[in-house]
Design goal:
Layout: H1 5-18, H2 22-39, H3 49-59, H4 71-80, H5 89-100, H6 119-137, E1 146-153, E2 158-164, H7 169-176, H8 180-186, E3 190-195
Parallel strand pairs: 2-3
Antiparallel strand pairs: 1-2
Helix pairs in contact: 1-3, 2-3, 2-6, 3-5, 3-6, 4-5, 5-6, 6-7, 6-8
Length: 198
């Protein structure tokens, strides 16, 4: 059982109460964790960061309960005002930032909340946000079409092979348009493509 089970349950409750499409949030969370399990070593992430990603992924769209246009920032603010049992103030700020950076601008040193994190914590946020962005793109159609992902690390590139329930170019396009942050961190180009027969 995860160390932060009560905190994870709190994130589930917020997702169910505030997310317009909880099935999308669950799908994004599932894909995020599949990507994390295959990338955490390359990104030099601690295994414990997986739970932060899980909570952020579940809650990434809760800001839509306030406003769509800036829902990424509203998600950050809602998370910051919520108590998560077993989660420190710094970890809560990290979760808030990961959710905030699932869309729009990449993390920057002068950004609210992010600027108060330590350098190692900022590095973790960048990496987890990079994963979350691609996972969110892989359910752009909100149809839960993605079944699994397989990451292949090459000397000069990274390939993410996506197994889909049916051919869905929208999700592949959605993921490719959000790959830049993870490419910056890996210092490698990423190709995200659908594969058949898997």
């Amino acid at each position: 059982m995860p160390k932060r089970e009560k905190a994870i349950q709190t994130s589930r409750c917020l997702m169910e109460q505030l997310t317009p499409a909880p099935e999308h949030a669950l799908q994004v969370c599932r894909i995020s964790l599949m990507l994390f399990d295959q990338l955490y070593e390359a990104l030099r992430l601690p295994v414990s960061a997986r739970e932060l990603l899980e909570m952020a992924a579940r809650m990434h769209d809760i800001g839509q309960s306030v406003d769509f246009a800036k829902h990424h920032k509203h998600a950050r603010d809602i998370i910051l005002k919520t108590r998560f049992p077993g989660v420190s103030a710094e970890e809560r700020a990290m979760i808030a930032c990961i959710a905030r950076y699932h869309r729009k601008k990449h993390p920057a040193a002068h950004h609210k909340v992010f600027k108060n994190l330590g350098s190692r914590e900022q590095q973790i946020v960048r990496a987890l946000a990079g994963i979350l962005r691609i996972a969110d793109g892989l359910d752009r159609s909100q149809s839960s079409c993605t079944e699994s992902v397989r990451v292949k690390m090459h000397v000069d590139s990274v390939t993410v092979e996506v197994s889909q329930k049916w051919a869905n170019d929208v999700d592949i396009w959605g993921a490719n348009r959000k790959r830049a942050l993870l490419e910056e961190l890996l210092r490698l180009p990423i190709e995200i493509k659908a594969v058949s027969g898997t």
